[in-house]
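Repro case for the chain-ordering regression, as requested:
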Amino acid sequence: MRNVVCAFGQEAFACHSVSMKLIVTRIVRLAAVIAFLAGGPAVAQNGSSLDYPTRTVKIVVPFPAGGVPDVLCRILAQALAAKWGQPVVVENRGGGNTIVGTTSVIRSAPDGYTLLFTTDGTFILNPVLYPALPYSADDLVPISLVATSAHAFAVNKAVPVQSVKDFIALAKAKPQRILLRDHWAGQHTAHRHGAVLAHRGRGTSPCPVQGIGRDHDRANR
Amino acid sequence: MTALIAEEISATINGAFNILPLIGTGTIKALAITTTTRSRFAPDLPTMQEAGVPGFSSQGMSGLFAPVGVPAGIRNKIHNDIVDLLKRPDILQALDKNYFQVQGKDAEEFRRLIQGETEKWRRVIAEAKIKIE
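-- result from build under test --
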């Protein structure tokens, strides 16, 4: 049998024995993995040596421009761009109760250059409500809860009530007259709020809930 | 809000962002705020609970996410940079102007909140037998 000296690099390919060649290839790969393990994480863990961002960061907002998350995201994006010295671009990809924009982000490279700025509908309600959601909450990693915002309950000026109690009494007496619309472009927030009103109304007639419209955005008013 | 002002719908539960600026304009009647405590932006507006709807609590959460796989080093840097920004008076003023309550909570706290809220809404939605249309 011929004596073959195998080493890393060019000589590895000079090995005549197929099995030997395979072993050498494996050793080369293993060495690469060891080198990565030794050096890689040390760099990644060290914030000071973290070279990010080095180019444009895109933040997808799965809502039309002008709504709550968009306004907040643009305030942040502008300040982050100044801090980082790199452009931070906000891309509005509305539609489908945020599913369109969210799906686009989870399908992008996990390199930190495509991020998602959104509200709880995306990561709480959609996973609970949609049986066949094209993403799972586990496809997203939270980075930061930036802010919260209250909702408010309002009636039109012709509704003859001055309080929520009056409103529930009216809804109970004339349920067919009450149309509750929610702020989001889809149904689910309307449904959850209507459900809570109905549920907490202790057996009073539920308010018929119709969640339509796109009143979320002041810009679209 | 257009539909409410035009009296096409009776009521809405909508972002404070949309409703609070209309208080006092005579276009709508704001009856309550949905958080468990009153809003500093509209201190005269009772909470839903004060207004007679026990247990009612809801608020919008706005946050930043990455697709799974983004290295922790990058995620932490972004969060820390955001927290720095949220201390700046000009940023706080801009958030105030839009009725936001600053949070700046990190991934772990955020994750816990999401879990708690998911459980809550899963229960409400199951009890009320809500289905998406």
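Ordering looks correct now. The longest strand of chain A covers residues 140-156.
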